[in-house]
Structures are given as structure tokens and as C-alpha cells.
Amino acid sequence: MEVIIQPTSDAAATLVARIVAKELRGNPHLVLGLATGKTMERVYRQLVRMHQAEKLDFSLCRTFNLDEYVGLFPSDPNSYRHYMDHHLFRHVNVDARNTHLPNGLAGDLEEECRRYEALIQRFGGIDLQLLGIGKAGHIGFNEPLSALRSRTRVKALTPTTILQNAPLFGGEGRMPRRAITMGVGTILECRRCILLATGNAKAEVVAKAVEGPITSMISATTLQLHPRCSVIVDEEAASRLAEKDYYRWIFENEPEWEEYR
Ligand code: F6R
């Protein structure tokens, strides 16, 4: 795992977008794993800008989102399908048939989870997976005690997650209590992971995720097991990290990051 600290949340999101753009240009058939949430909005804004200004081409890529609420119609403004259409899909030249999210309305949810896993496999697995982190440390909706080898499944949301996202629904009572999410095992199999976290509210959980012990209580800690994971943070989200000087040195000196400096 490596940690890259950027001065602002905009700079951090722009760096993530530039990495996505580079991967996409290198492999137009990229299988791209996507996340939703506030933090990712800036990344999608940048990708839309790159599509418009730099002709970044999404026409051959395929996307798989991490998660979707159970029980929401795609037209519901709080569904993740709606989020993706609104923030990215409708503004770039991705083929709608190549964009995949779990179907939270499926009659048989367990079957739907199996179908989703099989679909990811059918397209050769995920090349690059974008991740946010919840205040209690989830990636996707892998809430505390998610098994380290878990696959796509239905997960009950914790009070912390409900509290975090309820404002978007106009109150806790209106929020779904369950979601379909890729499992920790599914995420760990992606060829490359990029976790983006910004703002003071994420500082504590970022420090635990990166520098703390691996535990199923904080599913983001399992990324320490991943062979190619970059954690990209702004100064605020980095504020509780112990080894900041080392991380800064890496960004300033390692050849891999030269083109992004
Ligand atoms: C959403 C997802 C979640 C979010 C996380 C951070 O698809 O997988 O893990 O990435 O809850 O959300 P924000 O960015 O709203 O703080």
C-alpha cells in the first residue's frame, strides 16, 4: 500500500481522475470499478471535463459499481444507478449496456449477488477499482465484521452508515436498511485499488485503515493485504497519519509518480 498526500481535496480528486484517464488510455477495454458518495463527485467532474476537453474515450470500457441499496428504483434520486447517471454516465460516451450495478430490486437477492460476481468474472475481473471510505471504515458497504473473504452479498447497514447517509434521504426513517455490496474478497481481487479520502471527518479512520492492525471491524484495513493499492488523501484526511514524511517522500521521488507531480 502507498499513501499519496495532496494539498487539497480538489488536487486529490484530480490525481485520482488522472490515474483513471491514464489506465483508460492504456487499455480502452478497461474494466473499471466505481464507487459513489460525496468524495467521488469531484473525481467524476474531472473525468467529465477530460472527456469534453481531452476526448477521454469511455466507449469500450465496462464499469462495475461496488454497491446499490436494496429496494430503490433506478429512477430514485438516491439510488446509486441514478447517482452514476447524474454524475458520470450521461456526460461521457460510455455505452449504457456496459455499465453494471447490482440490482437492488431483484426478486431473488442472493441469486442477483451470484449473477453480479459471475458477470465480473466473465469480463475478466476488475482492472481498477475506485473506493471511498465510510466514517466507520467500510469500503463498499462492507460494514464491521465483514468477512475478509466475503463476496457480493446483501449487507445490513450499521447505525453509523445510516447516520452518514440519512440526510440525503431526508431522515433515517426513509433510508433503506440493506444494500447489495461487493465483498471484501471481491475487492481484494481487483488488479488495482485506489482509495480516495478527503476532509477532517475522515482523518481518524484513514489513520486506522492505513496504519492500524488489520481487522474485519474496519474493512478498509484489509487493503493492507492488497498488492497494488494507493490511498490518496488531502492534507486534512492525512492529519492523523504517523508516517506523513515518508509518504510525501514517495510522491516526490518515486518514478511512478513523476508524471503526476
Ligand atoms: C459508495 C461506497 C461507500 C462510500 C463511503 C464514503 O458506493 O461504496 O463506501 O465510498 O461511504 O462516502 P462519502 O464519500 O459520501 O463520504
Strand-helix topology:
Blueprint: E1 2-6, H1 9-26, E2 31-34, H2 38-54, E3 62-65, E4 67-69, H3 80-87, E5 99-100, H4 109-122, E6 128-131, E7 153-156, H5 159-169, E8 178-181, H6 184-188, E9 192-197, H7 203-211, E10 229-234, H8 235-238, H9 244-253
Parallel strand pairs: 1-10, 2-3, 2-6, 3-5, 6-9, 9-10
Antiparallel strand pairs: 4-8, 7-8
Helix pairs in contact: 1-2
The chain binds fructose -6-phosphate.
Summarize the structure.
It is built from nine helices and ten strands. The chain has 261 residues and is of the alpha/beta class. The strands form two sheets. It has a seven-stranded parallel beta sheet with strand order 1-10-9-6-2-3-5, sandwiched between helices. Strands 4-8-7 form a three-stranded antiparallel beta sheet.
Structural description of this entry:
The model has no long low-confidence stretch (mean pLDDT 97). The longest helix has 18 residues, at 9-26. β9 (192-197), α7 and β10 form a beta-alpha-beta unit. This protein starts with a strand and ends in an 8-residue tail after the last helix. It has nine helices and ten strands. The strands form two sheets. A seven-stranded parallel β-sheet has the order 1-10-9-6-2-3-5, sandwiched between helices. The protein has a three-stranded antiparallel β-sheet with strand order 4-8-7. α1 packs across α2 (38-54). Helices cover 37% and strands 16% of the residues. It is α/β, with parallel strands linked by helices. Fructose -6-phosphate binds at residues 35-39, 66-67, 132-134, 138-140. Residues 35-39, 66-67, 132-134, 138-140 line the site of fructose -6-phosphate.
